[in-house]
Amino acid sequence: MSETGFVGLGNMGRPMAANILRGGAKLVVNDRDPAAVAALVEEGAADAGGLAALCGRAETVFLSLPTPDVVLAVGREIAATPGVVKRVVDLSTTGPKVEMDLAAVLAEAGIALIDSPVSGGVAGARKGSLALMVAGPMPHFDAVEPMLQTLGKVIRVADEPGKAQVMKLINNICSAASLAITSEAMVMGAKAGLDADVMIEVLNASSGRTSASADKIPRFVLPRGFDFGFAIALSLKDIRLCLEEAERLGVQMLVGNAVRMLFSITQADLGPDADMTEIIRPIENWAGTEVRGGGARDAAA
Ligand code: NAD
Fold first, then answer.
1. Residue 285 main-chain phi, psi, to 5 deg
2. What spacing in Å lies between the alpha carbon of 191 and ligand 1's midpoint?
3. Ligand 1 touching residue 65 (CB < 6 A)
4. Ligand 1: centre distance to CA 66 (Å)
5. What ligand 1 atom has the least distance to the C-alpha of 30?
6. Of 99, 76, 119, nearest to 241 (Cα)?
7. What would the pLDDT profile of 29-74 be if each residue is shown by its tens digit?
8. C-alpha–C-alpha distance, residues 301 and 102, integer Å
9. DSSP 153-166
10. Given a cut of 80, is residue 299 above it in pLDDT?
11. HSE-up of residue 62 (Cα within 13 Å, Cβ side)
12. Distance between CA 162 and CA 254 in Å, rounded?
């Protein structure tokens, strides 16, 4: 059986690589952080010992890397030493422009690109219940579909790499906007003296229900853990990429621009590694109140 490569074993990459491994693939891995590699080796993967060495062993190479620049740089390295690589599957969020640049760079080395950003967060990556939006040519899509299915629900969006990235940016602006408005609304309710747990119960039984009210706020804000696992810098990157693409297409995103401001302020206040669910903190500071669930209130008492 030929080996499968995986580069980028962070919050998302580590559990996704583990699921591909459990699905029966022979996995060879690489990350610039040796501790991230060691964790996967413990689960049964092989340490490539470097990207060029990985390319000498793997026909399919998955990427889960933080920023568009890093994705493109790693893509260029793969194209420079293609080894036995036939296709790259990019699970990162890069935006359509960089994804199309990546496809062109890889094509020069005879390598196909499957554009496959994911949604569902670290919890979805662990459970294998992500949404995968996929754009890439046949027969390469067919070759990787069984491995993608170990990560979650596979939805084929288009043939051309870049189109799945547009879909991902659309999803993420909706997710960020719903977190932003629900955070503002929860602070308003807290200031008015409403119980945070009751507010969430009402929203989830009503027309205000979103992924923020159903998941992010009750699980990561009300207990004050703020450990959803998506850094503010990365979510801001997604919003920026979305607004750039909307502008390129001549589409106005007034709400999207307001959401970007709130995320930028949070990053300036709390730093790039803050969790995206911490966007509620500046709103709480301005209002002079905190949104706490019953459990968190009891613990603080
Ligand atoms: P992360 O920062 O936790 O992980 C990135 C990993 O890449 C790290 O282990 C880092 O050491 C490694 N890395 C960086 N440069 C490298 C290089 N040149 N060579 C090899 N390894 C390198 O990021 P994450 O949260 O896992 O996100 C990864 C991608 O998935 C991003 O594009 C992000 O936008 C996207 N995403 C994240 C989430 C989420 O909830 N965290 C959800 C959906 C999509």
1. -60, -45
2. 37
3. yes
4. 4
5. 20
6. 99
7. 999 999 999 999 999 999 999 999 999 999 999 999 999 999 999 9
8. 53
9. EEEEEESSTTHHHH
10. no
11. 34
12. 24
Domains of the chain: 3-161 (3.40.50.720), 166-300 (1.10.1040.10)
Pocket flag, ligand 1, residue 273 (CB < 6 Å) = no
Nearest CA to 176 among 112, 124, 111, 253? 253
Q: Is the pTM above the cut of 0.85?
A: yes
Per-residue pLDDT tens digits for 219-235 = 999 999 999 999 999 99
Report CA(188)–ligand 1 centroid distance (Å).
34
Q: Which two tokens mark 3?
A: 């080996």
Q: What per-residue string of b and e applies to 141-156 under the rule 16 or more CB within 10 Å gives b?
A: bebbeebbebbbebeb
Catalytic option among 26, 97, 153, 168: 168
The reply to whether 168 belongs to the active site is: yes
